[in-house]
Write a structure and sequence with these properties.
It comes from Bifidobacterium vansinderenii. This is Peptidoglycan-binding LysM domain. InterPro entries: LysM (IPR018392), LysM_dom_sf (IPR036779). Keywords: Signal. The protein has about 90 residues and is mainly α. The chain has a domain of about 55 residues: LysM domain (Membrane-bound Lytic Murein Transglycosylase D, Chain A). Strands 1-2 form a two-stranded antiparallel sheet. Helix 2 crosses helix 3. The longest helix is centred in the first third of the chain and has 23 residues.
Length: about 90
């Protein structure tokens, strides 16, 4: 009985962490995306300006693109492929 209790107590934090990972990533419904290949002269900001609907905040699009593509910085390389949400 003591071993079973110990196993449950050891596994509980793992289960909690596993279930909370969906919430950390937003837990939002699936999103349609397309792939874009970075061209010479592209910056994350310039690309975000092109795809941000008029009247919306470009900086929010930049942050969204960074999150979707697991980018630590806004730097892009020519030929790099990024995923972009379809709006």
């Amino acid at each position: 009985m003591t071993i079973l209790l110990l196993i449950v107590l050891l596994c509980l934090p793992i289960a909690v962490l596993k279930n909370s990972s969906g919430a950390a990533s937003g837990g939002a419904e699936p999103m349609e995306v397309v792939s874009y290949t970075v061209a010479p002269g592209d910056t994350l900001w310039s690309y975000a300006e092109r795809v941000t609907p008029e009247g919306e905040d470009v900086s929010e699009t930049v942050e969204e693109l960074k999150q979707l593509n697991h980018l630590q910085t806004s730097s892009l390389q020519v030929g790099q492929r990024i995923v972009v949400p379809i709006r």
